[in-house]
Amino acid sequence: MTASARHGRVARTVTTVVVGAGHAGLAMSRCLSERSIDHVVLERGEVANSWRRERWDSLRLLTPNWQTRLPGYRYEGPDPDGYMSMSEVIDFVSGYARVVSAPVETRTTVTSVRPSGAGYRVVTDRGEWWCEAVVIASGAFNIPVVPGFHEAVPSSLAMLTPKSYRNPGDLEEGGVLVVGSSATGLQLADEIHRSGRPVTLAVGGHVRMPRVYRGFDIQYWMDAAGILDERYEQVDDLARARRVPSPQLVGTPERSTLDLNGLSARGVRLVGRICGVRDGVALFSGGLRNVCQLADLKMNRLLDGIDRWATESGAANGLPAPERFEPTRVPESPQLNLDLRRGEIRSIVWAAGFRPDYSWLDVPVFDRKGRLRHDGGVVDAPGLYVMGLPFLRRRRSSFIHGAGGDARELCAELAAQLERSRGRGAALSPGRALAS
User: What is the pTM of this model?
Assistant: First the structure.
């Protein structure tokens, strides 16, 4: 790394800047080091910052411990079939940073990345960098999705998101409306209901899965059958595949299944997707039954595929017979509206998903909906790459163990781009770049 001065300002120079020191950024750091590509990893907080600061207390990974691995590093503890708590995830990721000697600069917030000469100028609150390549590894779950009509919610109600919620003690006493039925919404609805608060769950599109199938974790089957290895080039509707919500799974010592049937049996009220709030009244879709039937159908298709693979591969020998699960039970006449002014609901938890935050990226690489344009992580600008997005290159990209394969392939793309650029004589000195 070198430094260049212009008008008294010192800017450091490095070949590659990685933005974010979570598991994806650190996996990329390891791959860059293997190729002897000098780099720095800039992190706004601490290593594994989002796991430390932006998760609720009881959260555990949805994947079993044996599946938790990064390039050159994996879980080696005594409970391979368990599910890591947040403190264990933090220890795992932090340990990885130490083992690979990642060049992390913590408490360094990137405020701008913009083209500069043949590379990029990266501005932070602790100085500037000039580099030939940038890897965005700041995560896909930066900003909770909250619909615009939340402004019509009566001011007497408290509103939280999964980033601000820590435990039921954060909520007012009384009823809670949880919006969203993927893994996050289901888990929060269950935890809040167990605290003694009445819960209404607004159910949208979701992916239903059993935790254990034919004696093995569902993640084992998806891994072994090659489902998680499906590549982005093989998918007909990639944009849709990347919007699929996280599966309705929960990590518990009992390896229990958490689904809508379990919640409704315990007294959680199910309603359709929230469509709006008008005059203080929440309005829900009448399509709850259709949404649940579609999720049941897709689950059974998944299990059919697993059964076929298990039979053809011989993996089914000696295992329990295939099983199917009770269809999702839906109220005969689901409630279509709920008056939020009457006091029945005291809090709303918006658990309807997240989106990335690229407000600091001053490069014209966004489509008309504000989404980053990229081809398997190769962004639509020379020398710019992204890690850590759902289905980036494979279905497993969404999980910690998916970062390794993505990082290796993107690092190869990055190295090839550097070679092409330098072969054309396009790599500028830092002084010339900063002056541009």
Answer: 0.92
